[in-house]
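Listing S7. Sequence submitted for prediction.
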Amino acid sequence: MRQRRRMVLKGAVAIGSSGLMSRAQPKRISVDTRRPSLEGLTLQWLGVAGWELGFGESRLLFDPYLSRMPFQSSDGSLDPSLALRLDPKAVTAVAERNLSGPPALILVSHGHFDHLADVPQLLAHRDWAGHRIRTLCDETSHHLLAAMGAPDHRLAEVIRVRGGEHLRFPGFTVEVLRSLHSQFSDHGYFAPGTHVGPPRAPRTLGDLIEGQTLAYQVSFDDGPSVYLSGTSNLAERELTGLRPDIAIVGMTSHSAVHRYPERLLSALGDPALLLPSHHDDMVSPLLQSGGARQAGANTGRSAAATALEHAAAARGASGTRVVDPTPLQPFGLTTPAGR
């Protein structure tokens, strides 16, 4: 097991172009970790399950969904028959004002609308032309990207994965992990299914089917390791022995999954830092008109963060800390002097 060290969570300065707004400085939090070097790591929650990660020259996106389209019927249930209502203006605004530049890699957990729908537009983003952007996803997601009009040259650079791969990229490695999708309270699933060829262009939320659900562990060279999940479920035996420093934990409804948070933390070896994800309302705009972050986006400690704290406390994981992220407010990690 790697030697544990101390790290500090600190506010990150604005990253990317000079057009970015200033961001509030989050408080400093001391956290145990196993990695000796954290200087330069930045994380930014994009809402829903989306994240941007950066370390050194490496930038990655995970499940970047920014359109935040309506998804509920009148009774509040998830309605697969609703029309896709992508928001290209919102996607462009976040890409230009809040992301730090073209990613080297986009990681996709599965094919549902709130994970995949905006990836084709991001792959075609004009400011990223001329930069190589790889996409890691399963076969179904690859076919859905083609059906949604992702550029041919980007499709040619998609890496199809099934779980079990351990891939090397400049500056980091990615372990691909077989996982499970979140379940309804009656144990059913939203829009299951697979594609073995490109379907017709998706028109409804339910046309973007799950495919195979994957999780990932990204390990930066001489830096931390980050576990990324877009769902509130796990294939427990896939995770045993990973020991990431940081876990980004899907926290949608998980009442049908037996002891989900506790089992996840046990399988991952009680990571030093936990970040809840996929726990916002999914529809409130990320940005106001003019590009400012949505007012009132941070309304206090979330129930998801509190649930993770309770799970860590129940396990006696005193070295684990939970940070409740705010959308489009990046933060950084650093190793204190003398460690």
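Caption to Listing S7: primary sequence and predicted structure tokens for the chain studied. The first helix runs from residue 88 to 97. DSSP finds eight helices and 16 strands in the chain.
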